[in-house]
Amino acid sequence: MDAYLTLAEDVLRRVRRPLSAHQILRSAYEHGMAPPHLRGLTQHKTLGARLSEDILHQREASRFYRTAPGRFLLRELADDETIPEELRRPIVARRRRRNLAQKRSLAFHRSELENARRGLYAIDTSAILNLIEHGSFHYATSAPQRGLDEVVVWAFMLVIRSGCVLTYRQGHYRENRDTFMHRRTIGFYTPVIDDDLSLFERTDHGIVSSGVKALATDLDLQERELWPLLSERSRLEAFLYPESHLSSDLLAVVAFSCPDWLDPISKRLAINDLEWLDLRSPPNHCEDFDPWSQAILSEARHLAMASG
Q1: Within a domain: residue 257?
Q2: What pLDDT digit, counting tens, does each position of 156-188 carry?
Q3: Does residue 263 sit in the same domain as residue 146?
Q4: pTM recorded for the entire structure
């Protein structure tokens, strides 16, 4: 167990009541329990992430459990009758339905992308980021409601581990396009909207964080303490432009390097037949994939092979 978890265990065993990560650290410093090598302004976020990771990875074997969102207690205290009964029952995270946020979707005019083309699907990444940096973008009314010359930007998250990419089949949960329904998909995607732009993410308009939120919801990794870890392992890799006569969308491909301890599991109606696809050899039956996945397969294979 690392220093943060050891510290949390010692504090919770002493106070014998649920605490947030911030309260655990405050108590540790007040009682001289914090080791001198723990430094930094965001220690509570690191501690929260470590606790969430341990609970997610170890499950019932974890030394910790949540009594409420963001509040932790030692599992060894669950049988202690001096602690109120309602605090001795671990909460089960409520699964949230993810409705695609599509209003005021980040968009470009087609003419702004033509000079950035680098092949059939490829778009120069630096050119797109330059457009964002200089404010050469606008917001479509929504992803489904856009002008004929508007190209909407989607964050498309690839989950990659040891030469494989995580795939699933689309359900009625969020897709009604015939060319996507029941097809195999290699990513978790969402439109990038105006709310994704923040003071700290202006270089990419929050594309990576938007994708992380979609991934966290679809795979039930909703504890906010985990998001910094998800973000640290996610990187914007490429922009692809699978233009067709049906729609015009710019896909921002973000690769999430999935750690070995994370076992993605979902029982959502949208996430059917969840499985790893080994991309170290070209996949057979490409026609089984939805149009966006077909456009991204080559880039995904390159990233997967680089991962091992």
Answers
A1: yes
A2: 999 999 999 999 887 655 555 666 767 889 999
A3: yes
A4: 0.68
